[in-house]
Write a structure and sequence with these properties.
single chain, globular, 7-stranded mixed β-sheet, alpha+beta
């Protein structure tokens, strides 16, 4: 169940016109329309706690870079470069992760792998969280060929 702080954050974001994808126990994931067919993504979140933070994920997909020199380190670096401007706006890298995309028919078959880099920025209050989240939502966070 979401904490009272998460519910307060969610209510404030919705009141400011931000579409919420879902809320967890300690975070509120924001919805992004990422493709022409209106499929939603949720790579931006407001994280409850002290301090209040905004987090986003940048990614490079293995299938977009099939040539042999694109090892995991190179794919993480592509994701970092895609959002390099975020550092000038106070975001810092907080981690990396890989997410395999499995075939829905055959769970043993990996269709692609996302190489993701997480960035966070501490914010002072809910209004700062809104403006920072709007900035993160506007970033192009997917490295393409």
């Amino acid at each position: 169940m979401a904490s009272p702080r998460v519910l307060e954050i969610k209510k404030h974001l919705v009141a400011k016109g931000i579409l919420v994808y879902r809320s967890g126990t300690e975070d509120v994931l924001l919805a992004e329309r990422v493709r022409d067919n209106l499929i939603m993504d949720a790579s931006v979140a407001v994280i409850a706690g002290e301090p209040l933070r905004v987090r986003f994920l940048a990614r490079a997909q293995r299938n977009d870079f099939p040539w042999s020199q694109e090892n995991p380190a190179a794919l993480f670096e592509r994701a970092r470069r895609k959002v390099a401007e975020a550092a000038a706006n106070g975001f810092r890298e907080v981690g990396t992760m890989t997410t395999p995309l499995l075939d829905p028919v055959d769970a043993e078959q990996v269709l692609d792998v996302w190489y993701q880099v997480a960035f966070e920025k501490d914010v002072t209050d809910l209004d700062d969280a809104v403006s920072t989240a709007k900035y993160a939502l506007e970033l192009d966070k997917v490295a393409l060929r």
